[in-house]
Amino acid sequence: MSEQTPGIYLDNNATTMVAPEVVEAMLPFFTEQFGNPSSIHRYGDRVGRALRTARAQVAALLGATHDSEIIFTSCGTESDATAILSALRAQPERREIITTEVEHPAVLSLCDQLAKEGYVIHRLGVDGHGRLDLDAYRALLTERVAIVSVMWANNETGTLFPVEEMAEMARAAGVMFHTDAVQAVGKLPIALADSAIDMLSLSGHKLHAAKGVGVLYVRRNTRFRPLLRGGHQERGRRAGTENSAGIVGLGLACELAGAALEHERTTVRALRDRLERGILTAVPHCFVTGDPDNRLPNTSNIAFEFIEGESILLLLNRHGIAASSGSACSSGSLEPSHVMRAMGIPLTAAHGTIRFSLSRYNSAAEIDRAVDTLVPVIEQLRRLSPYWGEDGPLGDAQTPGFSPAYA
Amino acid sequence: MWDYSEQVQDHFFNPRNAGPVQDANGVGEVGSLACGDALRLSLRVDPEREVILEAGFQTFGCGSAIASSSALTEIIKGMTLDQALTVTNQDIADVLGGLPAEKMHCSVMGREALQAAIANYRGERWEDDDHAEGALVCKCFGVDAGMIEETVRANGLDSVTAVTHYTKAGGGCSACHEEIEEIIARVNPTAVAVQAPRAPEPPQPAAPRVNTLQRIRRIERLIDTLRPELQRDHGDLELVDVDGRTVYVSLKGACAGCQMASLTLSGIQERLSAELGEPLRVIPAAPQQIAC
Ligand SMILES: Cc1ncc(COP(=O)(O)O)c(C=O)c1O
Ligand code: FES
């Protein structure tokens, strides 16, 4: 990419640009507003007030009843871990967890570790469109379950899970319910007061706030055990001096996101659809993964057959376009992403999935340039592929005309 | 995200010899869609002099898989087949200015496709090992789960320190220690971590077969030919035993941090497998003796 070409950022599910207004709001908290909010003097007092405002702004976006239900943390991962470990410690007689196969590693790796420590982990599978079987879920809800942790929106495909309904089912069975809403907050309207959701995680850097700040919502009267004990910050539920600049920025980012929800639902969705249609029309042998009718308005995950994701990304990057891939090639394991495997994406395509995730900062011109760039990139890589002939795949899709010494 | 050298980028963005060679008389295919990478290498060989006149590649894979294929074709053009057979995956990595540990398998794929293509030209069948290496555990030294498991099993290892002495795994940043501990617990459940490393028990040799002795002698001779090179690097190598396709060796290195290709077990394994024409697993049967 030449230095002059402006980049096109289509990787907003990985992280977002900090909104300029948010940067502006944060800056004083690195300079004159450096006080410790716990201090009694005026240096601390002003910061304390700013945190109260931020807490109210977050509570408003989530539709929470009380500001005190908002606990600031350091990231989405910390919020997820706090929720799950709290439920286990508060209910030591309950030794089971219900989650899904397609959660973020923040939940899955923690559950793997808990399994080693003797907890029983139920990981709900998904169908070819990434959907859950609610009857299977219902059958697992017993008094042995400490917590259900199910993501609101999948970070790779954008597919939405019916968490409000699942939370009602958990409540009816007397089981605590947590949702990792890191990808959903700011993209969809959320009304926690009217729901049965007990705990919810969000992360600042996914909604145009800074990295290193997150929130765990804990409904009033939910039994809770802190992850970090120490000072009385966050009413003793999360010790450690507050990241005041980050929290103030997150508060404003939530207010901006709330105001932009309608824009997200209409304009961003239209841009995403334009991108998707452009690609599907121009490129043969590719398809949308996940549940196209029930997903985040900003996300499109497209599987390109017979080529590998990392090489697509490298060529796109050269033209200034940033996206991401479900390919795990860089981990050395050569396994496609756990989400693609869980959905049973065919082998011809599982290594060639690309996620495009938009934001309110993208324009129609950018989308058109992205499509125009992508089409020749795909053609170029297919010309290199041993599975691709003059003008199409060799052999039929499942058994290409390629017979290596091992399979 | 991408720790690729300029040479890797150059070969990826401007691949040399992409596409099949016209009138190829040797074609090698390795990998699969399931593995996430695959390579078809086609050669036109001058039958008189056995010289590679042209080489072309078609690759499905990541950036370094494509770059490794491109580099391979440049290396082997103009070589005789016998010269080409001595090309190692490290040679490919060297031309590329090195590859990240997670991506070394891409260069291995290149070397395997070359062997397959030459075997195809000569009308032989080429057999690869089963690629059941498992995930990379130690990124500092590029050691996979299979190597650690077999070394723990063969030597009854019971601590991370012992695994480091045998395989180097865990001797760097130490981020992989938890995973190594888990492998030890799984493979050697009776392991007591505080126990001093035991003397290695010689593994039981396989039931004698007709040509077992000859085969062992060949391995021994090959190891002897590798030794001067290792001794130059202040290392050494001894054959301890051969059990089926597993070759037990004792490896002495000059320095734990030394990443000399010739000193790595996978390098030795590759040379032995290539020269014997069968997939072999080289497992250390004694701790690596490390000077510093
Ligand atoms: C669904 C989901 N959960 C959790 C996280 C982790 O958030 P953080 O990076 O703030 O720890 C992410 C970020 O990638 C995510 O997409
Ligand atoms: S990863 Fe094994 S020592 Fe660094």
UniProtKB/TrEMBL annotation, chain A:
One of its GO terms (molecular function) is pyridoxal phosphate binding. Keywords: Iron, Iron-sulfur, Metal-binding, Nitrogen fixation, Pyridoxal phosphate, Transferase. Its cofactor is pyridoxal 5'-phosphate. Its EC number is 2.8.1.7. PROSITE patterns: AA_TRANSFER_CLASS_5 (PS00595). SUPFAM superfamilies: PLP-dependent transferases. InterPro entries: Aminotrans_V_dom (IPR000192), Aminotrans_V_PyrdxlP_BS (IPR020578), Cys_deSase_NifS_bac/arc (IPR017772), Cysteine_dSase (IPR016454), PyrdxlP-dep_Trfase (IPR015424), PyrdxlP-dep_Trfase_major (IPR015421), PyrdxlP-dep_Trfase_small (IPR015422). Residues 8-369 form the Aminotransferase class V domain. GO terms for biological process: amino acid metabolic process. It catalyses: (sulfur carrier)-H + L-cysteine = (sulfur carrier)-SH + L-alanine. Homodimer. Belongs to the class-V pyridoxal-phosphate-dependent aminotransferase family. NifS/IscS subfamily. Catalyzes the removal of elemental sulfur atoms from cysteine to produce alanine. Seems to participate in the biosynthesis of the nitrogenase metalloclusters by providing the inorganic sulfur required for the Fe-S core formation. This is Cysteine desulfurase. It comes from Marichromatium gracile. The lineage of its organism: Bacteria, Pseudomonadati, Pseudomonadota, Gammaproteobacteria, Chromatiales.
UniProtKB/TrEMBL annotation, chain B:
CDD domains: IscU_like, NifU_Fer2_BFD-like. Fe cation binds at C35, C62, C106. Keywords: 2Fe-2S, Iron, Iron-sulfur, Metal-binding, Nitrogen fixation. [2Fe-2S] cluster binds at C138, C140, C173, C176. Residues 4-125 form the NIF system FeS cluster assembly NifU N-terminal domain. GO terms for molecular function: 2 iron, 2 sulfur cluster binding; iron ion binding. Residues 136-186 form the BFD-like [2Fe-2S]-binding domain. GO terms for biological process: iron-sulfur cluster assembly. InterPro entries: BFD-like_2Fe2S-bd_dom, BFD-like_2Fe2S-bd_dom_sf, FSCA_dom_sf, N_fixation_NifU, NIF_FeS_clus_asmbl_NifU, NIF_FeS_clus_asmbl_NifU_C, NIF_FeS_clus_asmbl_NifU_N. Residues 219-283 form the NIF system FeS cluster assembly NifU C-terminal domain. Its cofactor is Fe cation; [2Fe-2S] cluster. Pfam families: Fer2_BFD (PF04324), NifU (PF01106), NifU_N (PF01592). The keyword Iron applies. Transmembrane segments: none annotated. Binds 1 Fe cation per subunit. Binds 1 [2Fe-2S] cluster per subunit. Belongs to the NifU family. May be involved in the formation or repair of [Fe-S] clusters present in iron-sulfur proteins. NCBIfam families: NifU_proper. This is Nitrogen fixation protein NifU.
